[in-house]
Amino acid sequence: MSDLDDSTTLLTVNHLSAWYGRAKALFDLSFEVKKGEVVALMGVNGAGKSTTLKAIMNMMDRKEGQVIFNGQDISKAPSYQIARAGLGFVPEDRRVFSELTVKENLLTGRQPERYWPDGEAVFYWTEERLYQLFPNLGKMVHRPGGKMSGGEQQMLSVARSLMGNPYMVLLDEPSEGVAPVIVDQMIEMIIELKKKGISILISEQNYHLAKQVADRYYTLSMGEIVEEGVL
């Protein structure tokens, strides 16, 4: 068992506010995600779910507040350093490299093995392990990303993030614009990741998906947290 047991907070967000240009989009958000936990950010379009994930990754024009990840203050760190610290991010628009094959896309996400403070290794992802988690990807290793369906690109984006062997993954609207069968596969995937000790913060409108995978939720409305609870 790692020193960071299941009651240990892995991500802490304190009084987070953020702006798009001069327009304030987030208002004084505070919440946390514990090791091995799946937490859902719920709300309608425009509620601030995706913006919250972008603010954590320092992808906003301006932000205020504090973000602590794995014991480190990442509030002012650039996005690439946050990713290197073991916080994976799967954006809503997927950002798959269209000219690269599945295999080549995966290799762009490769990071060294990671360890918890007591020396225990974080689950190490290889291509073979990812093809077991996403069998469809294993059947199209040489297919360019631009010739994949939306659901297939979503799987590839998640798999590429996992190649970084993250402590935690931010999933932005994974069910958006994909077929119901892909949503079911996403549910199975998130449950499997949780079994492997990976924490997940997911922004999601799909209550069915959130209910199946999340331990707790925060509901956002107009950039503010208006409700929280257990799912």
TrEMBL record:
It comes from the Bacteria. One of its GO terms (biological process) is L-amino acid transport. GO terms for molecular function: ATP binding; ATP hydrolysis activity; branched-chain amino acid transmembrane transporter activity. Residues 11-231 form the ABC transporter domain. Keywords: Amino-acid transport, ATP-binding, Cell membrane, Membrane, Nucleotide-binding, Transport. PROSITE patterns: ABC_TRANSPORTER_1, ABC_TRANSPORTER_2. Pfam families: ABC_tran (PF00005). Belongs to the ABC transporter superfamily. PANTHER family: ABC TRANSPORTER ATP-BINDING PROTEIN, HIGH-AFFINITY BRANCHED-CHAIN AMINO ACID TRANSPORT ATP-BINDING PROTEIN LIVF. This is ABC transporter ATP-binding protein. It comes from Oligella ureolytica.
